[in-house]
Write a structure and sequence with these properties.
This protein is of the alpha+beta class and about 120 residues long. Helix content is about 35%, strand content about 30%. The chain has one domain: Ribosomal Protein L22, Chain A (Alpha-Beta Complex).
């Protein structure tokens, strides 16, 4: 069985978020939460909330409702690039430099061990 959570338009650069998500891909849910709790990055907070949402979505699956989610693993963890907000910073002699505020879409899928063996 699989459960998925998507968090869209998060205000973090996809490059920086991918550095954090690479740490938890393929880990057990408990281990992934411990890693995220001890990671000192802004993206770790957003990824942790999305991971907890995916684990909570397991209870919506009738076949595994009330199952122990400690043995579930992070089977898929993807950071996609969202829309970029473009801002202008004034510079000398009337010039303007562009500031790009990047956003990310976080997708996390958890599954039990039986679906990975297939």
């Amino acid at each position: 069985m699989k459960a998925r959570a998507i968090s869209k338009y998060q205000r973090v650069s996809p490059f920086k978020a991918r550095q954090v998500i690479d740490l938890i891909r393929g880990q057990k849910v408990v281990d992934a939460l411990n890693i995220l709790n001890n990671t000192n990055r802004k993206a770790a907070v957003m990824i942790k909330k999305t991971l907890l949402s995916a684990v909570a979505n397991v209870s919506n699956i009738p076949e595994v409702a009330g199952a122990n989610t400690d043995e579930w693993i992070v089977s898929k963890a993807v950071i996609d690039e969202g829309p970029t907000m473009k801002r202008i910073r004034p510079r000398a002699m009337g010039r303007a430099f562009r500031i790009r505020k990047r956003t990310s879409h976080i997708t996390i899928e958890v599954s039990d061990n039986s679906s990975n063996k297939e």
